[in-house]
C-alpha cells in the first residue's frame, strides 16, 4: 500500500513539474529552438547560395518596392476615378520617372558632384579654420577653462571622421570589388527594377490572393488581415518619410543658397537623406553646415544665419509638413523610437537606423496579430465585467428612497 502511494506521489510530482507545467514546456521549446539555430549555424555553407541570390536581387526589389508605394495610389486613383486602365497609367508614370531621372543626371548631379569634390578637397582647410576660430574664441578668459577640453574633443571628432570615411571607402570598394562590378550592378538595377515595378503595380492584388491560397482555409482570413496591416504600415512609413525628406532637402537647399552658405545644395541633399533617420538625422546633417559656417568670415554672421535656417526648417517640418504627411500613423512612442534607433545603429550602422522603424512596425503587427489569436483561443484574457460605480449606486439608492 505504501509503495502504491509513493508511486502515485512520484507520478504526481513528475506530472506537476514536467508534464503539466507550462513554464517547463516553454523552456524546453526555447531549448529546442536554440539547438536548431546552433545546428543550422554548423551547416551555414548550405545557405551561402541563398544569401548570394538574395544579395543579387535585393537592390532592384528595394527600388521597386519604394516606387510601388509611391505610384500605387496614383494608379488606383486613375483606375477608380477616371476608369483609366492600369497599364496606361503605369507606362505614363514610368516615362515621367525616366524624364526626371534624365533631367537629374544632366542638371542636378553635375552641381552636386562639383560641390562634393570641392568639399572633399577643401575639408582639411575648413576643419583647421573652424578649429582656429573656436580656439581663438576659447582664449577668452571666461572660456579658458574649456580650451583643453575642446582641443581633446576636436581631435577625437577629427579622428572619428577620418576613420569613418576610410572604413566607408574601403568597405565600399571591397563590396563592389571593382568599377566594372559596380557599373554592372547599377546597370542591372536600372534595367530590372522598372520591370519588377511594372508587374508589382499591374498584379499587386493577385500577389495577396496567391499567398492566401497557400494558407490553410482556417487561417486565411487572419492572414489576409495581417498582410493588409503590414502593407498599410510600410506604405504609410515609406510615403511619409520620403515626402518629408524631400521637403526638408528643399527647405535646407533654398535656405542655404539664400544666405550664401558654401556647398548649400549638397548640404541640403545630405539633410534630405539623413532625415530618413527620425529625430537624429536633421541634427547630424547640421554638424557639417555649422563647421563650414564657423570658418566663413566674418564670424559669427554665417553661423547665426545657419541657425536661423535650421530653426525655420524645424518649425515648418514639425508644425506643417510632418503633421500633414505623417501624423501618428506609425503609433510609436518617442522613447521607443529613440531606443530602437540607438540599438539598430549600433548593430547595422546607418542602414540599420534607416530600416529599423519599418522592420519594427512589421514585427509589431505580426506579434499583435499572434497575441490576439492566442488570447481568443486560450481565453486567458477575457475582459472582466465592469463593476457598478459607487456614485451611480448611491444615486440609485437615493432615487429609490
UniProtKB/TrEMBL annotation:
Compositionally biased tracts (Basic and acidic residues): 383-401
Region of interest: Disordered: 382-401
KW Cell membrane (keyword) present: yes
Principal subcellular localization: membrane
Cellular compartment(s): Cell membrane
Family membership: Belongs to the autoinducer-2 exporter (AI-2E) (TC 2.A.86) family.
Protein name: AI-2E family transporter
Pfam families linked to this entry: AI-2E_transport
Record field: transmembrane: 21-40, 46-66, 87-112, 179-201, 236-259, 265-294, 338-363
Organism: Holzapfeliella saturejae
Record bears the keyword Nucleotide-binding: no
Topological relation to the membrane, as annotated: Multi-pass membrane protein
Keywords on record: Cell membrane, Membrane, Transmembrane, Transmembrane helix, Transport
Amino acid at each position: 500500500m505504501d509503495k502504491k502511494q509513493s508511486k502515485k506521489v512520484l507520478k504526481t510530482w513528475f506530472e506537476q513539474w514536467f508534464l503539466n507545467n507550462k513554464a517547463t514546456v516553454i523552456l524546453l521549446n526555447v531549448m529546442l529552438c536554440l539547438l536548431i539555430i546552433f545546428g543550422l549555424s554548423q551547416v551555414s555553407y548550405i545557405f551561402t547560395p541563398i544569401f548570394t541570390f538574395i544579395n543579387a536581387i535585393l537592390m532592384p526589389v528595394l527600388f521597386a518596392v519604394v516606387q510601388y508605394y509611391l505610384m500605387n495610389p496614383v494608379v488606383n486613383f486613375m483606375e477608380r476615378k477616371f476608369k483609366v486602365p492600369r497599364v496606361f497609367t503605369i507606362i505614363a508614370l514610368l516615362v515621367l520617372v525616366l524624364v526626371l531621372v534624365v533631367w537629374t543626371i544632366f542638371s542636378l548631379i553635375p552641381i552636386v558632384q562639383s560641390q562634393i569634390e570641392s568639399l572633399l578637397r577643401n575639408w582639411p582647410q575648413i576643419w583647421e579654420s573652424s578649429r582656429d576660430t573656436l580656439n581663438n574664441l576659447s582664449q577668452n578668459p571666461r572660456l579658458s577653462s574649456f580650451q583643453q577640453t575642446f582641443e581633446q574633443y576636436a581631435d577625437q571628432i577629427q579622428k572619428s571622421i577620418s576613420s569613418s570615411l576610410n572604413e566607408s571607402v574601403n568597405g565600399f570598394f571591397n563590396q563592389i570589388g571593382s568599377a566594372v562590378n559596380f557599373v554592372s550592378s547599377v546597370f542591372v538595377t536600372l534595367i530590372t527594377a522598372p520591370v519588377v515595378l511594372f508587374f508589382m503595380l499591374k498584379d499587386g492584388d493577385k500577389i495577396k490572393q496567391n499567398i492566401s491560397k497557400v494558407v490553410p482555409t482556417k487561417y486565411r482570413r487572419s492572414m489576409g488581415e495581417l498582410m493588409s496591416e503590414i502593407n498599410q504600415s510600410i506604405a504609410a512609413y515609406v510615403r511619409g518619410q520620403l515626402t518629408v525628406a524631400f521637403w526638408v532637402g528643399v527647405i535646407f537647399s533654398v535656405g542655404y543658397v539664400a544666405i550664401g552658405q558654401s556647398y548649400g545644395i549638397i548640404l541640403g541633399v545630405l539633410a534630405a537623406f539623413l532625415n530618413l533617420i527620425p529625430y537624429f538625422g536633421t541634427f547630424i546633417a547640421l554638424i557639417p553646415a555649422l563647421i563650414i559656417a564657423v570658418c566663413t568670415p566674418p564670424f559669427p554672421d554665417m553661423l547665426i544665419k545657419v541657425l536661423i535656417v535650421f530653426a525655420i526648417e524645424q518649425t515648418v517640418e514639425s508644425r506643417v509638413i510632418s503633421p500633414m504627411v505623417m501624423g501618428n500613423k506609425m503609433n510609436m512612442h518617442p522613447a521607443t523610437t529613440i531606443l530602437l534607433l540607438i540599438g539598430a545603429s549600433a548593430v547595422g550602422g546607418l542602414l540599420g537606423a534607416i530600416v529599423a522603424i519599418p522592420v519594427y512596425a512589421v514585427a509589431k503587427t505580426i506579434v499583435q496579430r499572434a497575441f490576439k489569436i492566442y488570447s481568443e483561443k486560450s481565453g486567458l484574457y477575457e475582459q472582466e465585467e465592469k463593476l457598478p460605480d459607487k456614485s451611480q449606486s448611491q444615486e440609485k439608492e437615493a432615487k429609490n428612497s
